[in-house]
Amino acid sequence: MRAGVGIGGWEDIRAEVLRRIRVRDWPPGAMIPTEEELATEFGVARATVNRALRELAVAGVLERRRKAGTRVAALPVRKATLDIPVIRQEVEARGQRHSFRLLSQAEAVPPVPVASRLGLGPEQRMIYLETLHLADGQPFVFETRWLNPLVLPAPLPDFATVSANEWLVAHVAYALGDIAFSAAGATPREAAVLGVAEGAALFITERTTWTAEAPITAVRLAHAPGYRVQTLV
Amino acid sequence: MRAGVGIGGWEDIRAEVLRRIRVRDWPPGAMIPTEEELATEFGVARATVNRALRELAVAGVLERRRKAGTRVAALPVRKATLDIPVIRQEVEARGQRHSFRLLSQAEAVPPVPVASRLGLGPEQRMIYLETLHLADGQPFVFETRWLNPLVLPAPLPDFATVSANEWLVAHVAYALGDIAFSAAGATPREAAVLGVAEGAALFITERTTWTAEAPITAVRLAHAPGYRVQTLV
DNA sequence: TCGGTTAATATGTGCAGACATAATAACCTC
DNA sequence: GAGGTTATTATGTCTGCACATATTAACCGA
């Protein structure tokens, strides 16, 4: 950063470009000047302009192509970034105390939808866990998890004491995953565990993770009513 | 990129660092070498290592602090990036035909929750729109929207013909917004419009946007059953 | 030993110059 | 003109160097 001067950094360039887009100096779909031209105008190096424009492109505000140049996105596909924390952190971030209870543990062949989501054969046995997470003693989220025993290092912990999620993070080399959000009516089991009416609208998070070769775990989180996922754009 | 050589770019550095984290050469919580040391090891400039490590920090895999150094995140707060497209694009991306019907348009004082979410006084009148979006003729999402007439440029379009969302993107300088996801039972109105049972679990998206000074719009999207938001991590 | 000042250090960002790459535009041939 | 080749151009990235900044670690005096 230039000594003493409060302007000229890439964040300032980004802010100024964004301002021009928002006041429609550069309306949606319009081409904007080249990096070279902007660098000259702002009196900075091209690399600095590049950094600013790149960030805006990642955010979905600009579209860039070599040789073609840079244009303002016509229909900005806004990219919202969500933090997916560990449940304990999520509860504690709300200023509440986190605890959990292991409700059941078993070894079984998963149902077909879970098996296919994990890319498993029909006979592969897995570990099944049901855990209720509490915030200040109130039901917060009901977790049902399938674990692939083939990729877990021995010895397995006592999942009544150790959160499966946090143990996995600390002991298994993950590689890929996907997350999905949806809504579903509470199943009888979920209704009983969370203390809500059967069929009540629940927010559902489903996560699947793999190592490079094999599936690790599939989790379904049924959140207590009132749960929201929120983010700034 | 170095001529002819397929390695040595920042993406390769990022991949190699990620590999070492995943095979636990560098386990969660561990410090990793300094940029200088990695640059020497890989035979690249420090700026290249910096780019790679910065991306991993943004992704939540690394935690970096000046002078303190870089460590592997102990409890990786995974950052999931969601694309929030325009509804028309969303429908078309599924290979379906998009259409919509304006169900009602009025000018009214919004209910208190909406007014407070927008930071409005209790008497501010707004435009209220109800729109049903269809995918291949089937109900896809029911949109209820409050629009601030004070920030809209004249003339207003015919919202029966022009999607409010796309008109806004093209004509109003937005600045900030927030998005929230939740689940809710279908209200009588939503049930009738979407053709589902009252109380059925619906996935709800709520968006609010502002200019620098004034609120622009608050939207509630009630998605037809089966809707999912999905992303890779 | 405590508390505050100073030095050391890893990351954050800047610059100028160079070459790579992708995609368009210009050109040339038939 | 149509089709294929070549030149041009804007972005993408790398290098090497410099200085800023935030923290920590070392130091030192009361």
Question: Mind explaining what this structure looks like?
Answer:
The structure is a homodimer of 233-residue chains. Chain A has 233 residues and is of the alpha+beta class. The first copy, chain A, contains 7 helices and 11 strands. In chain A, a hairpin with a 3-residue loop joins strand 2 (62-65) and strand 3. In chain A, helix 1 (10-22) crosses helix 3 (46-58) and helix 2 crosses helix 3 (46-58). Chain A is elongated. Chains A and B meet through strand 4, helix 6, strand 8, strand 9 and strand 11 of A and strand 4, helix 6, strand 8, strand 9 and strand 11 of B. The structure holds a DNA duplex (30 and 30 nucleotides).
